[in-house]
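Good morning,

Attaching, inline, the backbone tokens for the sequence recovery test we're adding to the shared suite. The designed sequence is right after.
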């Protein structure tokens, strides 16, 4: 089977509590944010704490948030994409209030009359696809799954904080962890603000 023939339709996407810790680490372990393993905590660790908290604590936070390996758990954050039994992708999705650094960021409030304390609004903040599996449309499938996951968990809306991409512009993979405009648009989200030349806030209300 060629790379081109393996489409997003072949994926199975599961809530993170139905994934093992080893599966999470296969996708998230190699990922870096500002030079260190992130464990998808960059928006969740407040302010300067990000630069002082150690990797062990970041990993512990992720395990607690996901309840990975506990399929009966009622609480989980995030989705894991599988190709057959191989974990290949991740989407961080959960209540916006659980992301204090996101709420403090001007991209959320610029040009908007928005109650940032609204507990019903969820956020899809990060997409990671393992090296060797990129370029197959897997982030599109994860964005669609994030919409349905948030809706099923009682969210009143889901937001994404996308990056604008252009065919003639080189953007590193790390910059695109927040997701591109195209994947959110294809999942049904619409633009609500553009706080900078490169960032667009996207949203879908349920």
């Amino acid at each position: 089977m060629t790379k081109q023939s393996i489409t997003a339709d072949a994926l199975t996407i599961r809530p993170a509590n139905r994934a093992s810790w080893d599966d999470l680490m296969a996708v998230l372990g190699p990922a870096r944010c500002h030079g260190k393993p992130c464990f998808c905590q960059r928006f969740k660790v407040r302010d300067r704490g990000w630069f002082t908290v150690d990797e062990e604590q970041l990993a512990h936070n992720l395990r607690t948030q996901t309840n990975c390996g506990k399929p009966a758990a009622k609480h989980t954050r995030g989705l894991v994409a599988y190709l057959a039994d191989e974990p290949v992708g991740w989407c961080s999705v959960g209540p916006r209030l659980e992301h204090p650094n996101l709420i403090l960021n001007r991209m959320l409030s610029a040009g908007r009359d928005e109650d940032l304390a609204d507990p019903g609004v969820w956020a899809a903040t990060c997409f990671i696809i393992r090296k060797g599996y990129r370029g197959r449309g897997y982030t599109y499938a994860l964005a669609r799954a994030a919409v349905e996951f948030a809706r099923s968990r009682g969210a009143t809306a889901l937001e994404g904080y996308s990056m604008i991409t252009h065919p003639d512009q080189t953007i590193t993979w790390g910059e695109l962890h927040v997701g591109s405009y195209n994947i959110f648009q294809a999942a049904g989200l619409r633009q609500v603000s553009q706080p900078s030349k490169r960032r667009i806030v996207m949203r879908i209300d349920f």
